[in-house]
Each structure stands twice: as C-alpha cells, then as structure tokens.
Amino acid sequence: MNLPLSQLPELSPNRQAFPLVEEFLARSELLRIKVHNQNGVTVIDCGVHVSGGWEAGILFASVCLGGLAQVKLHWLDFSGLRWPAVEVVTDHPIRACMASQYAGWPIINGKLLAMGSGPGRAIVHEGGLFKTLGYEDHSETAIICLESEELPTEEVIQYILEECQCDPTNLYILVAPTASQVGSVQIAARALETGLSKLMELGYNLGKIVSGCGVCPVSPVACDNLSALGRTNDAILYGSTVLYNLRDEERLDSLVKQVPSCSSKEYGRPFVEVYKKYGNFYDIDPHLFSPAKVWLCNLNSGRSFHAGSLRPDILRCSFGLETNL
C-alpha cells in the first residue's frame, strides 16, 4: 500500500514544528522547562528535572505532530465524568500522526528504554511503517521527542545525530517522562494516531483518510512510572473518541466495529492489570490499543458509522478519583 503523500504540497514536519521549538526556547521559564546544550545539541527537559506543565504539554504534543495539527485543552464530559481533555484536529492525519507522532523508535538510554517520536523520525524513515507510507523528510533541522525518565546520555545523542545525519546545532531533543504533566498531555494527544495505527493493522488503506479529530481525557500524574503507564493508556482505551473523514466506495459498518478497544479480549480491565499479566508490552493483544469510540464519516456517501463506548467507571478507578457522598 503506497499512500499519495508525495502528491501533497511539501509540508516538512521538521520545518513546520521548528517555530514551536523556538517557542520552547523563548519561553522556558514561563513553561517551567529547562534548555541544555550538550556538545552543540539542544536538549529540552520538559519534566525530568523540572516540573513542566500543561501548557508545555500542549506545545510538546504540537511538536510531536510536526506542527501539522491544532492541539487544545478544555473541559469535557465523559459520560458523566467531567474532566480536562486534549483535542487534536488535523487536515494532514497521515503526515502528522503516522510519519511524525507515532512512537515507533525504541532507543536504549542507559539502563532505560526511551520511546522516540516526533518529526525527526521522518528523516530517519526506517522500518516497515515508512515503507508503507512511502514518505521521508529531507529537512536539515531534526526534532526528536523522547518519552523517558532520564535525559539522553552522550551515547544516545551521538546515535541520534548519526541516524538523522545532521549538524549538532540543527538537532533538538525534547524529553518528558510518562509520569509528568507534559507526559499526561502529550500521550492523551495520541488518541487520533492510535486509531490510525489500528486501521493500518486491520489492513485499511490510510490514503483514503482526509482529516481527523480526536479528544481524550488528560490522566492525573501518577506517583510512579508503571502507574503512569496504566493511567495514560486507560485514558485512550476507555476515554477517547476519534472521528475520521474519509472517501471510500465500500460500506464501513463492518470495519468500524473492529477498530475500538472493545474489540479486544483484554477489554474491560485497567491497563496496569493487563500489563502485569503479560509482563511485556509487546505480548499484549494489539487489538486493545485503540480509542474507546470511533466515528468513520464517508464523504462520498454522506453516511457516518460508529462503534465503541466510553467507560467512566474504569477511568475513575484508574485515575484514583474519590467521590464525596
């Protein structure tokens, strides 16, 4: 499957996201982040040794999406649970979500595993995903986002430099732990990408998708990384709603039922329980990693198809919410 990204006007995720990186540099104190220079490379700490915040989280998510999406934070009702939510809207869903935001680059950082995402992945363009997308970015500026508990080591920085083949002064690395305010926000902003990943896994031609919108609750910051992993995943699996506008000649009622998280045999339990059962992220049923609710709107027929439901009961449990009667 070769998607028609090459037919689009040149919209480099790295070039589009660079003004957002400049905003990080110009507003570091206001955003409660810290900028470091390591051998010429700019490393932006968004939550490892600093507090960060929701505003930095919105900016971090916007960078992850290659500057090709609008990211906003507001209150939303999740079937009776009113909670802060992240909304992502894009008219370039494949380039923003799959060629940039998708966290498909595992990087060994000391004794830890950091997940790499962001516009720089389109420069490296390694792996089956980019063969499927048929796309790469030739920007001289490279921007990488790391989900990690630690800042990158010198070895990791050198590795990223070699992979991106850029000058150190043109490499920007943003870092945020899962258990941080920035982490909670930027992961919630991945609901739209999660749905696209599921559609691709089901063999659907993503080239038919024109635009997308997604909303997801922002999980409270957990006290440890495992709990944060559980909460951020639960936010997507049981709280997110995504909508895709597409053009297709086929009926979509059968397809849409396969997309939401409820299509998995592991559905219905907090993610941390599922994770402890398997002990390995990659052994978990891949069908579980999906938004809670999915809408497919066919621009050709004018018909819309829906599947899935929200589970505020699981969110309340996962988020550790207490109710005063």
Structural key phrases:
Methenyltetrahydromethanopterin Cyclohydrolase, Chain A, domain 2, alpha+beta, 325 residues, six-stranded mixed beta sheet, 12 strands, disordered N terminus, globular, 35% helix
User: Roughly what percent helix?
Assistant: 25-40%
Per CATH, the superfamily is: Methenyltetrahydromethanopterin Cyclohydrolase, Chain A, domain 2
- Whole-number count of domains: 1
What is the level 1 CATH name?
Answer: Alpha Beta
- Please identify the structural class as seen in this structure: alpha+beta
Biggest sheet, strands in spatial order? 1-2-8-7-6-5
Could you name the CATH topology? Methenyltetrahydromethanopterin Cyclohydrolase, Chain A, domain 2
Indicate the radius of gyration in whole angstroms: 19 Å
Number of helices: 13
Percent of residues in beta strands? 15-25%
Explain what the structure shows.
Helices cover 35% and strands 24% of the residues. The protein has 325 residues and is of the alpha+beta class. The chain has one domain (4-319): 2-Layer Sandwich (Methenyltetrahydromethanopterin Cyclohydrolase, Chain A, domain 2). The strands form two sheets. Strands 1-2-8-7-6-5 form a six-stranded mixed β-sheet, sandwiched between helices. A hairpin with a 2-residue loop joins strand 3 and strand 4 (81-90). Helix 4 (93-101) crosses helix 9 (191-201) and helix 10 packs across helix 12. The N and C termini lie far apart (55 Å). Residues 1-9 have low confidence and may be disordered.
